[in-house]
Amino acid sequence: MKFPPRTKRFDWDYVLYGNSGCVVFTSKNWNATGYKVLAASPSAKAPPLPQKNYKDFYKGQSEDFSRIRAAALLSRKESLEAGGYASKEKDYLFDSDWIVGDWMKKALSKNSFGSPSAIEQDSLFSFNLSEWTAAISMLGLFGGGEQSRTLARILTLAKDESVLLSALKAVQDCGYDPSGALIDAIELLIKNSQPSQDGLLKESCAALYSVCRFMGRPTINSKGMRLLSTLQLPQYSAATKEEARKIYERLAKLKI
Q1: CA distances from 170 to 93, 119, 217, 235, 247 (A)
Q2: Who's near 130: CB < 8 A, 6+ residues apart?
């Protein structure tokens, strides 16, 4: 039993123990202070947790992973394009974010350590390149601001052309760009692309048109026309120049 410390307000010299569970502290100046000792019953032990079976854990994880993986299937894209999926939208967004987030995590890790630009599947519960690109290509079908910011990050981080093309296709589905991050990412992509990358540059033109059409005249005047004019420089191929010219004319005709 631990006794209270001696202080000016509580000074004691002797301790008396009573049969009824009392403890009395007395001092030489005839002061006495008593306490009743309460017997605390020991707390009941919690029942032991059942031992987990790895096979059950693996089965559950595999079922969840298979459901999420379905987000990269053509049937999911058809459902998004058809619309009317309101009751499933929460699940669709979760599955899409999981796959795209998996790519993003690996891209950030590779870039941080200066590793090669190719990102490979590195664990059992991971996705492959075709699943990443499929999920990325569907982001524009959701049409939200969060997806717009995600696409801007992908266009900035990605080195694999198949990932870049998927992101540009998604921008063509919805050019919503409230922060301007998307148009900035397209500008950076065009600047960093090789003039020989005709496919990438032509898709960049189409994505640029989508953003300008959605965001209106300020975006067209500030960056849209200028970027398309840049693609008329001598180093670019005839195919790229022709695509840029067509998009330039389409933007000029927009009554916005």
Answers
A1: 15, 20, 22, 27, 18
A2: 72
What does the pLDDT read at residue 88?
A: 87
Q: Phi and psi of 26, rounded to 5°?
A: -120, 160
CB atoms within 10 A of CB 40: 6
CA 90/CA 151 separation, integer angstroms:
19
Contact by Cβ (8 Å): 24, 16: yes
Interval 131-160: pLDDT, tens = 999 999 999 999 999 999 999 999 999 999
Bridge partners of residue 17, in order along the sequence: 23
DSSP per-residue codes, 44-66: PPPPPPPPPPHHHHHHHHHHHHH
Structure tokens at 118: 């190719």
Q: How much is the mean pLDDT over the chain?
A: 84
Q: Looking at per-residue confidence, does 214 or 34 come out higher?
A: 214
- Residue 207: count of CB within 10 angstroms of its CB: 28
pTM of the model as a whole = 0.71
CA 171 – CA 152 distance, rounded (Å): 9
Write down the pLDDT at residue 67: 79
Q: How far apart are CA 192 and CA 181, in angstroms?
A: 16
How far apart, in Å, do the first and last CA atoms of the chain sit? 85
- List Cα–Cα distances, 17 to 1, 30, 34, 201, 231, in angstroms: 12, 17, 10, 92, 97
pLDDT of 99: 93
